[in-house]
Amino acid sequence: MRSSPRALPILLLALAAPAAAQTSHGPDRSRVAAAVDSIVAAALEGGRAAGMSVAVVRGRDTLVLKGYGFADLELDAPTPERAIYEIGSVTKQFTASAILQLQEQGKLSLDDEITKYLPGYPTQGRKVTLRRLLDHTSGIKGYTELPEFERLMSRKMPRDTLVALFSSKPFDFEPGEAEVYNNSAFFLLGLVIEKVSGMSYADYVKKNLFDRAGMPDSRYCSESAMVKRRAHGYDTGPNGLQLAAYIDQTWPFSAGSLCSTAADLAAWTLALHSGKILGPAAYQELITPGTLNDGTRLRYAKGLAVDSLLGHRAIHHGGGIPGFLSELEYFPDDTLVIAVLINSTGPVSPEGVARSIEEAVLGRSVVKAAPFKGKAADYVGEYRGVGRGQETVLKVAQDSTGTLTIQQGRQPPRPLAFRGGDTFEVGNGRYTFKREGKRVVAVRADFVFANTLAKRTP
């Protein structure tokens, strides 16, 4: 469950056993540990975040497993090594894995319509499959973007209350026309898991995922249970850190209600990607991105983004929930896992911390921009398309140096790097402009966690 503007995204042996001998091409553990210490110290400087836990595991070698800062600011309690955090939308890969396990058992198919399992769900005449729920392409209204959810999030009520709220709203787009990050979809997947398995979501995940991967400290989050080593969450307010906004764990559910540790998430990642959780066919399904109706290939698969980070192939996901931010990354070419958990929301980004750690371990693979010889004026203009809770507005301009820039909403303009044809990139964003004849009429904006066709305004 990623934060919304209103509602505020191995083996166990590898962690427990002595580290394997370093190979000639392996990283130096002490160098990496010192680099991580420095990266985290800079992130926590000045009280910008409460605390943090980091795991860096490469193959069978645990390079870093450490807690930093404070698990509880009021008690000056340092972060223990096995601190437990709410992991928000990192939950989604567990939900997706559970669905694929059930498909392996012949109990469901990704191409089944949701009404097969939730017969009362109002699809408003549309065909919505489990596959469309898994990759955020269903078009169902996301509940974390609804103003009504802010009033609901602190109250304990039947789950049907939330389903009734978002299912009554118009679809944002026709299924398969776009990808817009969607917590409602993963909430519905949790209901399907319970219906098909005959178990509660919490029990299913513990028995079939946590226990199988070797994750003794992971659980479905609770507002009332006494949990040793639990980190307390904080949000950033006008005067700095403050106690996190309250959210009842009824609502994040299978979109974001799991709690875990950095060590457990490293164990999960290596178990998932080494065949301990899913068979070969189901695993390939999990990590293979689908397509939109027009054939556009996504970079989001099923509960996991599948693309590259700093030039290295990566399978990853982040999470955000009141008081907590998380990032979990796997680099298959290097069997490298990076987990970053923070018990505060605010200026410190777990993605940024993970990216710095990745560079310290793997280095940066630089992709140089191709020389642009086209007409900048072809692309200059404003483009509008569907977005998460609000319209996506992109403005393409040419700065004083002649460089093409793109601005999304109120963010500052950023220079576009030419990749050939009518395709440009900024960071992980990819923009492919569409023409009718010679005139540019739209841009396909791929943000990994969203993919929309924004049309040029007159």
Largest sheet: 10 strands, antiparallel
Model regions low in confidence, pLDDT < 50 over at least 5 residues: 3-25
Question: What's the number of helices?
Answer: 12
Mean pLDDT: 93
Strand content: 25-35%
Structural class assignment: alpha+beta
Shape: globular
Radius of gyration, in angstroms, nearest whole number: 22 Å
CA distance, first residue to last residue: 36 Å
Bin the helical content.
25-40%
DSSP strand count: 22
Summarize the topology.
Layout (H helix, E strand, L loop, with lengths): L11 H5 L12 H16 L6 E8 L2 E12 L4 E2 L6 E2 L4 H14 L25 H5 L12 H6 L6 H9 L11 E2 L2 H15 L3 H13 L5 E2 L13 E4 L2 E4 L9 H4 L1 E3 L1 H11 L7 H8 L17 E5 L2 E10 L2 E8 L4 E7 L7 H13 L18 E5 L6 E7 L5 E5 L5 E2 L1 E4 L2 E4 L2 E8 L2 E8 L3 E7 L2
Antiparallel strand pairs: 1-2, 1-13, 2-3, 4-9, 5-22, 6-9, 7-8, 10-11, 11-12, 12-13, 14-15, 14-22, 15-16, 16-17, 18-19, 19-20, 20-21, 21-22
Helix pairs in contact: 2-12, 3-7, 3-8, 3-11, 8-10
Structure description:
Strands 5, 14, 15, 16, 17, 18, 19, 20, 21 and 22 form a ten-stranded antiparallel β-sheet that branches. This protein has 458 residues and is of the alpha+beta class. The protein is 26% helix and 26% strand. A hairpin with a 3-residue loop joins strand 21 (439-446) and strand 22 (450-456). The chain contains twelve helices and 22 strands. It has helices at 12-16, 29-44, 91-104, 130-134, 147-152, 159-167, 183-197, 201-213, 253-256, 262-272, 280-287, 350-362, and strands at 51-58, 61-72, 77-78, 85-86, 179-180, 219-220, 234-237, 240-243, 258-260, 305-309, 312-321, 324-331, 336-342, 381-385, 392-398, 404-408, 414-415, 417-420, 423-426, 429-436, 439-446, 450-456.
